[in-house]
Design a protein that fits this description.
The complex is a heterodimer. Chain A is mainly alpha-helical. Chain A is built from 14 helices and two strands. Chain A has a two-stranded antiparallel ribbon with strand order 1-2. Chain B has one domain: MetI-like (MetI-like fold). The chains are: A mainly alpha, B mainly alpha.
């Protein structure tokens, strides 16, 4: 019986395709590469930064901050005046230099320049009513604002994260008690308490003998203490909430079932997932601290004289607003720029590191 | 629901007590008594005065007495001018409350309207313009806004007289007070409005052929306003604290400027009284807005 080879043998399995391997071509390396759609592996932080760089507002904010920080570092080196120094020409106190317009020279300075044929460093923002260079005062005011913002947010970061983490991990009764405390502090009218504590600390504490701190004044230190006492609650709440939800995730369970230690779970699974909230919250804390500082300085509870602050500069400028409006405009614009940059950066960080929160 | 309200009221009471506690003991920690004036008094006179005002008793007894007095509406007398503090608060708060309430209304109305306009014109020019200004105003502390308004409208343009007691005197303070919270409300409304516009029930309503305006007002806005309610408490707090500097700048004799004056003058009983009073209003506003929020949104009861 002759076998008919043209007709394929009946399928051994109903659904088999009976493919002939010889009919296939091997893919070239180039073709293989084309099929490879995997993105380059990145870390969480790098991914967020990439998104941040693509956001034009964020880039704008970062440039403003870089320029402001550069001015703050460089200006005190280049400008030959100090924030508390009264302008003197050849050892004579220059009384005609009070409240000058930007880039204006006083009579004594003009005479000095003609006599020796030299240029005196211009008063970029004029001078204040006590014959001090205004530009350097505004720069120091900005330094104070930045310092307060960064210190306050660092303090919030440390206290809030630790407190929230303990509360979130322990759960149960510990969590309940800790969160009641947070609830109460959260509902305190913070600015009133800050004002109150500043008034009291101003009278009771004395830091004037401590080297670095003394220069800032007791007010400043008390302000930072108060920030540390009150502002961390928002952060603690966020971190706790985050940890509570992360703890329940399947990947934590999976890690546990594979025998990962508690420390490894915290490091590898819980912390990286909290990081976005922590970064965002820290960044958004900076402008609110700067706001509060300038507010307190404005009502006379800020840094100790003669150290200037943007708020106290604006307050003193109010009295001469009719004749010297620029004295109000310069510190006010500085506050707006700083707060605007930090606000934009905070929003951009939120969008970049936690797209879920995007508003 | 009842359980929540009771819990919330209890929390408010505890907070209020804590504010009084902190205020009292902080002020007690300040060195120097109320009778350490410039004129030296003999120890006998000071002892007699202390006995007269109950200052010779232990601190906790003084605290209990102070609390009792507060509950009877007695905040004591000012150190500087000897006037009854409760009366001063009552008189000056009338002024502050008038401006503050107008500012709350302005902030709410303009914030909601601008937020809706921004959300309904998403990514078109009205949205961009509104968001630009809102971002700018959030970066502007209220004292900067107030000083700028004074500088531009009173001094440079001369549209509003600097010193006057007529009603147009309130225009600038109200604007200065309401700008920062208004910006926040605008952002809040825009976000929740966009959220509501994306909901299924809005699509259903549109598909059924409901008129666009009706969809906006009945289906979207009503739901979008729920988060705004929670902000009314912080809004009152923001306007009260803003009023401290704004009243000072516009020299309005309200509670805010009285408070700042008492800080500068170190008038401790006055600081105590004003702090407790302002804190009371803020806590009350927060309490009311939290309870209303729960009442308005039935979804929250489920969780």
């Amino acid at each position: 019986m002759a076998q008919n080879y043209d007709i394929p043998a009946p399928k051994k399995r109903m659904w088999s395709l009976q493919l002939n391997p010889e009919k296939f071509e091997r893919a070239t390396d180039e073709e293989k590469r084309q099929a490879d759609v995997m993105a380059e592996s990145t870390t969480f932080f790098r991914d967020g930064m990439k998104r941040l760089r693509r956001n034009p507002l964020a880039v704008f904010a970062i440039w403003i901050l870089i320029i402001l920080i550069a001015i703050m570092i460089v200006a005190p080196i280049f400008v030959p005046y100090s924030y508390s120094e009264v302008i003197t020409v050849e050892g004579v106190r220059d009384k005609s230099a009070a409240s000058m317009a930007p880039f204006q020279y006083s009579k004594l300075e003009k005479a000095y320049m003609e006599k020796y044929n030299v240029r005196i460093f211009p008063h970029i923002m004029g001078t204040d009513e006590l014959c001090r260079d205004y530009f350097i005062r505004v720069v120091y005011g900005m330094r104070v604002s930045f310092l307060v913002g960064v210190f306050a947010s660092l303090m919030v970061l440390i206290i809030g994260t630790i407190y929230g983490a303990i509360s979130g991990y322990c759960g149960g009764k510990v969590d309940l008690v800790m969160m009641r405390i947070v609830d109460i502090i959260y509902s305190l009218p913070d600015l009133l308490i800050i004002i109150l504590l500043s008034v009291v600390f101003k009278e009771t504490l004395d830091f004037s003998k401590v080297p670095v701190v003394g220069k800032l004044g007791t007010n400043m230190v008390s302000m930072l203490i108060v920030f540390g006492l009150l502002y961390w609650v928002g952060m603690a709440r966020l971190v706790r909430g985050q940890i509570l939800t992360i703890k329940e995730n399947e990947y934590v369970l999976a890690a546990k079932s594979m025998g990962a230690s508690g420390g490894r779970i915290i490091r590898k699974h819980i912390l990286p997932n909290c990081l976005s909230v922590i970064i965002i919250c820290t960044a958004q804390e900076i402008p609110s601290a700067i706001f509060t500082e300038s507010y307190l300085s404005f009502i006379g509870l800020g840094v100790a004289l003669p150290m200037p602050s943007l708020g106290s500069l604006a307050n003193t400028a109010r009295s001469g607003m009719q004749s010297y409006p620029w004295k109000l405009v310069f510190p006010a614009v500085a506050i707006i720029l700083i707060c605007l940059a930090f606000n934009l950066l905070g929003d951009a960080l939120r969008d970049a590191f936690d797209p879920k929160l995007k508003g | 629901m009842a359980k929540y309200i009771v819990k919330r009221i209890l929390l408010a009471v505890v907070t209020m007590f804590l504010v009084c506690f902190i205020t009292f003991f902080m002020m007690n920690a300040v060195p120097g008594g109320p009778f350490n004036g410039e004129k030296a008094k003999s120890p006998e006179v000071i002892a007699a005065l202390n006995a007269r005002y109950g200052l010779d008793k232990p601190v906790h007894v003084q605290f209990i007495n102070y609390m009792k007095n507060i509950l009877h509406g007695d905040f004591g007398v000012s150190l500087k001018n000897g006037r009854n503090i409760a009366q001063t608060i009552r008189e000056s708060f009338a002024v502050s409350a008038k401006i503050g309430l107008i500012a709350v209304l302005v902030a709410l109305v303009f914030g909601i309207v601008l937020g809706c306009v921004a959300a309904l014109n998403r990514n078109k020019w009205p949205d961009h313009v509104i968001i630009f200004f809102v971002t700018l105003f959030t970066a502007m502390p209220s004292f900067v806004a107030a000083s700028f308004l004074l500088l531009v409208f009173c001094i440079q343009l001369g549209w509003v007289p600097v010193w006057s007691s007529s009603s147009q005197n309130y225009v600038l303070p109200v604007i200065a007070l309401s700008l920062p919270p208004m910006s926040y409300i605008t952002r809040l409304t825009k976000t929740s409005m966009l959220d509501a516009l994306g909901q299924d029930y809005v699509r259903t309503a549109r598909a059924k052929g409901v008129k666009p305006l009706k969809v906006i007002f009945i289906h979207t806005l009503r739901n979008a306003l729920i988060p705004v309610i929670t902000y009314v408490g912080p809004l009152c707090a923001a306007i009260l604290t803003g009023s401290l500097v704004v009243e000072k700048i516009f020299t309005i004799g309200g509670l805010g400027s009285k408070f700042v004056d008492s800080i500068t003058a170190r008038d401790y009983p006055m600081i105590m009284g004003t702090t407790i009073f302002l804190a009371f209003i803020m806590i009350l506003a927060n309490l009311i807005s939290d309870i209303v929020y729960k009442l308005v949104d039935p979804r929250i009861q489920l969780s």
